[in-house]
Amino acid sequence: MGADEQPSPRRKRDREEEDELADGGAAEKRPRAESASLLGLSSYEDDEEEEAARGQANGHRAEGEGEGGEDEDEDEDEDDDVRRAPERRPRQVELRRDCPYLDTVNRQVLDFDFEKFCSISLSNLNVYACLVCGKYFQGRGLKSHAYTHSLEAGHHVFINLQTERAYCLPDGYEINDPSLEDIRHVLNPRFTKEQVLNLDKNKQWSRALDGSNYLPGMVGLNNIKETDFVNVTIQSLMRVTPLRNFFLIPENYQHSKSPLVHRFGELTRKIWHARNFKGQVSPHEFLQAVMKASNKRFQIGVQSDPVEFMSWLLNTLHLKLKSSKKKNRSIIHDCFQGELEVVKEVHRKHIMEKREDGDELNGDAGSVVGTADGTITETSKVPFLMLGLDLPPPPLFKDAMEKNIIPQVPLFNILKKFDGETVTEVVRPSIARMRYRVTRLPKYLILHMRRFTKNNFFVEKNPTLVNFPVKNLELKDYIPLPKPKENDKLRSKYDLIANIVHDGKPGEGCYRVFVQRKSEEAWYEMQDLHVTETLPQMVALSEAYMQIYEQHE
């Protein structure tokens, strides 16, 4: 057959293929690989561009025929096709609004709280969520797990968990449809600065997909396995307005490379998001980051102390957030850091013993004064994030009714530890007499009652009830406070915003928390997934373990 007679059968074949592409039924019967190779053609509809499209199809066929096309012109076409391949790549992802599979999306099964890992390869690179069954799969190429799933299960709509772009597989085109915006908002909740400022004024309830109502910011947290100590700590910190507002806007901490910081920010945004599909949140990704950052000191399945966890979390977040510009400052220190003046009296005999053991005196002591009776007094200033209060020991004997009386103590009695006069005896690291005085009050004051004492045999819990005010805790009446600067006003009044309670025996039991909702001045009791409104009087009757107070403006 002559060279000039070749184009006519090819043109016929091209027209036949274009007719097949136009016919939807025929295209489905053809093999997937062939339709994928001709995907670029589907976007060329104008008659003027038919010649260019035919040239591309000829190039593809020349590769497929191999030795059959011996002509030099065909070899040149092949080379040209190889050279043009990188330029054609962007065209292969077609953008379409009219995806016929959008009605198969099932929002009931979507859950973006868990780690973004492929359910088959366990890789976290390039992961897509199937919007029909909710499972995670890797990639969207011809041999990827997502592509295979689309063919096996007949599920066609996928979203990239990183870029938030939606695709239809196996066809491979990108879906541009506004109906998927709500899914993007649940995957990555966003807040504007205006929305953040108005959060505490919002009194509106949100509705979940199952018809239940929930309050943004007052959502239950899943107890994955003995993780109630984490849940109560998070719920308490969510009431600290500057901390919450800082973490609701990711730009504030984008300089930090710590996964813990970013997971905490994500969790904060999910708790306060008003368009969730369900009225609870699983802190799964945050717990994984905690396990890694704490070297498994805190882990899923092992009960821990919320006071220890709060202390570790605040210090770790501060270390990861502090920037060199602000000289060791961070949002954590701005909210919680106060200052104590510590006066330590140590007998000379104990110092000599300590030096023999190879230890040295406290190097950062402000001043050291010796007295005639052999006592050395050290005065130093120490920053603090929380204050520990000692409870009086419970009575040893039963009363006439053969029952132990549960003693009660006012909060002001145990706050006397920080009046600068009350002496506290300490044994470790050496025997000493300590006096504490608050020299700077923080915006948010964290108090914890030392309920648990550990000896060589077991852990004991002190059941003493602490009587505390829910509003208007006035500190200046009970502990001496430093005089404010000239233009400043002394701010010593505090309101309770969170109260963590322990129920049950030491080493067992569970934690719950009472938190205040500012928009309505209402109190809620939260225990994992259970969120119930309660009376302020009930808050004061509980066995308080840790409390957060907010300073009056």
Automatic annotation (TrEMBL):
Region (Disordered): 1-91
Annotated UBP-type domain residues: 97-194
Any one of the GO CC terms: spliceosomal complex
Main location: nucleus
Biased composition, class Acidic residues, residue ranges: 65-80
Gene3D superfamilies: Cysteine proteinases, Zinc/RING finger domain, C3HC4 (zinc finger)
Protein name as annotated: U4/U6.U5 tri-snRNP-associated protein 2-like
Organismal lineage: Eukaryota, Viridiplantae, Streptophyta, Embryophyta, Tracheophyta
